[in-house]
Design brief:
Helix content: 25-40%
CATH class of the largest domain: Alpha Beta
Radius of gyration: 29 Å
Largest sheet: 8 strands, mixed
CATH topology of the largest domain: Heat Shock Protein 90
Strand order of the largest sheet: 7-6-5-8-3-2-9-10
Distance between the termini: 55 Å
Number of strands: 23
CATH superfamily of the largest domain: Histidine kinase-like ATPase, C-terminal domain
Strand content: 15-25%
Shape: globular
CATH architecture of the largest domain: 2-Layer Sandwich
Number of helices: 20
């Protein structure tokens, strides 16, 4: 809370709001920040467009869903308000606390939401912002030149979807408090103390009537977003405290390097072939900031932001960057005679291989597709980002010819590999594999033709595959046995991937194509179940398959089509009864429930092949009794780093991971 009595927000001295200093003495940075905070931000800058009536009726329209994604969006909306203060230069510290009861507190040391009376409506500014859908200072260009909360619906939507929401504002020497329940004011604005600080504290409890699936926040997901914001706003300090564990889990994010530090973080575990290349420029009131770095990996990672919002579907800023990158590297290679006669011009895929890039633009009036803001539509941004990238990257390459040569050589290797992959594709098409006109011989297909009702089991080994074929429901379950461990695609380019028979068999069975030719609509099954042994080798095979899906068929995972079967590790018999245990913990629970251990026999399965068809159906394939683990991507950045660390060529990060996590191993087959 705030001083004098409460000190949880670090702020700056603030005299009477209407007083202006007349001192001619040099002012300190803190005093400059104070002057900015006092400048023309009161309720008159709040514009009103409409009320909250529709939010509780159709919450998905405003936060995407009422599942875990929408729940976490509540935190994002409140934090974005604090970040907007930081982008304006008014805030230096943001603190997020997840309480034991899953309430969330977001504190900042910004200017504080206005508390004076809004002349047009007769309401206090803070109540207006919280109870009217399109009301906020972000519609007034003098208050926020750039903001992430473009639509002005963020904090009011959080209020509408919260069982209770409390706001504490430090402003003009006073501490003010107001409370709401389900979007309705239940405690009018009142002064509860004095302070020399400024800032806002928002505490809210998500409404379980709206979020019926869960109100439990995922620490990793919250942490990832806050870390991302700290990278994008260099100098800002963001603290995260999770009080649900003992002792409380704490993290702090502060990066003076900004997106350069972001790129270095993303490339941790990869072998970089050049230092990060950074450039930033303001043009026509639009700020373009780009950092890129090449590594020796075969995958790329391009992450784009508009006003700190992750535009996962890209947009005009991404289009402009990609066009400029391809054009500039082609021009540089030609000007410096780095191409041989047999080499053609680079495609956009060639220049992206092994590239990690962050594109962050600040746009005063961004045009997003929908409230979820995943794609930028401003046509003028494309030309600005393209011209800035062209000029800045060409200047860098001309000033660093050694780095330029390394990058061109990397792209040339990628271009030649692309040609090899094209030939491999053509060859497999001639064999009628990738087109799906003929299915692999060892696939035991199902009779159901509706993909949404069909399942494909990818089964480890011919023996288990035989049992699965006999035990399955032929109507909707297809079986594809896999022999041994498939190729580790993390260490191979596409033409090598296409030369792997086991991978080709998977591609053919699924019918979707691969990489840039992937088409989710052609998927022949909407449940793809990886079924491997419950041992180390089985886990390795499952990881290899998941790596392939993540790198070359990621929409399968993003659409929720991929699952892991959970076969039992133990069979426990006593008399005529038998029970299956998935792991050691499950086994101990069952044995404890039996009380008397006499007459109990325990069988530990070494693999799926030890089960007969009936057992395999009962434990792992029967929809009425089986347990499946759905594979999802909550954090694409973390997923990419995990796959790079586990399956990449760098040994040291993998060794460190094993050392740090060795004490968590429960079952280790020797």
């Amino acid at each position: 809370m705030f001083s004098n009595a409460k000190n949880n927000i670090r702020g700056h001295n603030l005299a009477d709001e209407n007083n202006q200093s007349t001192s001619k003495q040099p002012i300190t940075p803190d005093e400059q920040l104070n002057e900015k905070k006092q400048s023309n931000y009161d309720s008159e800058q709040i514009k009103v467009l409409e009320g909250l009536e529709a939010v509780r009726k159709r919450p998905g329209m405003y936060i995407g869903s009422t599942g875990p994604r929408g729940l976490h969006h509540l935190i994002q909306e409140v934090v974005d308000n604090s970040i907007d203060e930081a982008m304006g230069g008014y805030c230096s510290l943001i603190k997020v606390i997840i309480h034991k009861d899953n309430a969330v507190t977001v504190e900042d040391d910004g200017r504080g939401i206005p508390v004076d009376i809004h002349k047009e409506t007769g309401m206090h500014g803070v109540e207006l912002v919280l109870t009217k859908l399109h009301a906020g200072g972000k519609f007034d260009k003098n208050s926020y030149k750039v903001s992430g909360g473009l639509h002005g619906v963020g904090v009011s939507v959080v209020n509408a979807l919260s069982k209770r929401l409390e706001i504490t504002v430090a402003r003009a020497g006073k501490i003010h408090f107001i409370a709401f329940e389900k979007g309705i004011t239940v405690e009018k604005l009142k002064v509860i103390g004095d302070t020399t600080k400024t800032g806002t504290i928002v505490k809210f409890w998500a409404d379980p009537e709206i979020f019926s699936e869960t109100i439990e926040y995922d620490y990793g997901q919250v942490q990832s977003r806050l870390r991302e914001l700290a990278f994008l706003n260099k100098g800002i300090r963001i603290q995260l405290i999770d009080e649900r564990v003992e002792p409380a889990k704490e993290a702090e994010f502060h990066y003076e390097g900004g997106i350069v530090s972001f790129v270095e973080f993303l490339n941790k575990g990869k072998t970089s072939i050049c230092k990060p290349i950074y450039f930033s420029k303001d043009k026509d009131n639009i700020t373009s900031e780009v950092c890129l770095q090449y590594s020796d990996s075969y995958s790329d990672m391009l992450i784009s932001f508009v006003n700190n919002i992750n535009t996962t579907e890209g947009g005009t800023h991404v289009t402009g960057f990609r066009a400029a990158l391809t054009k500039t590297l082609n021009s540089y290679g030609e000007q410096n005679k780095l191409f041989k006669d047999k080499d053609g011009r680079f495609s956009s895929d060639d220049v992206l291989e092994g590239l990690t890039v962050i594109i962050s633009v600040k746009v005063p009036e961004p045009q997003f597709e929908g409230q979820t803001k995943t794609k930028l539509g401003n046509s003028e941004v494309k030309g600005i980002v393209e011209s800035v990238t062209n000029a800045s990257l060409m200047t860098f390459l001309q000033e660093n010819p050694a780095v330029g040569r390394i990058i061109i050589d990397k792209c040339l290797t990628a271009a030649r590999a692309r040609e090899a992959a094209k030939k491999a594709r053509d060859l497999t098409r001639r064999k009628s594999l990738l087109e799906g006109s003929s299915l692999p011989g060892k696939l035991a297909d199902c009779s159901e033709k509706d993909p949404s009702k069909s399942e494909l089991y990818l089964v480890e080994g011919d023996s288990a595959g035989g049992s699965a074929k006999q035990g399955r429901s032929k109507e909707y379950q297809a079986i594809l046995p896999l022999r041994g461990k498939i190729l580790n695609v993390e260490k191979a380019r596409l033409h090598k991937v296409l030369s792997s028979n086991e991978i080709l068999t998977i591609i053919t069975a699924l019918g979707t194509g691969i990489a840039d030719e992937f088409n989710l609509a052609k998927a022949r099954y909407h449940k793809i179940i990886i079924m491997t042994d419950s041992d180390v080798d089985g886990s390795h095979i499952a990881t290899l398959i998941l790596t392939f899906f993540f790198r070359y068929m990621r929409p399968l995972i993003e659409s929720g089509y991929v699952y892991l079967a959970q076969p039992p590790l133990f069979l426990i018999k006593k008399g005529n009864s038998k029970q299956y245990a998935r792991d050691e913990k499950d086994k101990d629970r069952i044995l404890a429930a039996m009380n008397d251990a006499k007459g109990v026999t325990l069988q530990r399965y070494k693999g799926l092949g030890e089960m007969n068809p009936e057992q395999l159906w009962d434990t792992t394939m029967d929809p009425g009794t089986r347990t499946l683990k759905q594979i999802t991507i909550q954090d694409a950045i973390e997923a990419d780093q995990v796959f790079t660390m586990l399956m990449g060529s760098e040994v040291e990060p993998r060794r460190q991971f094993i050392e740090q996590n060795s004490d968590k191993v429960v079952n280790l087959d020797i």
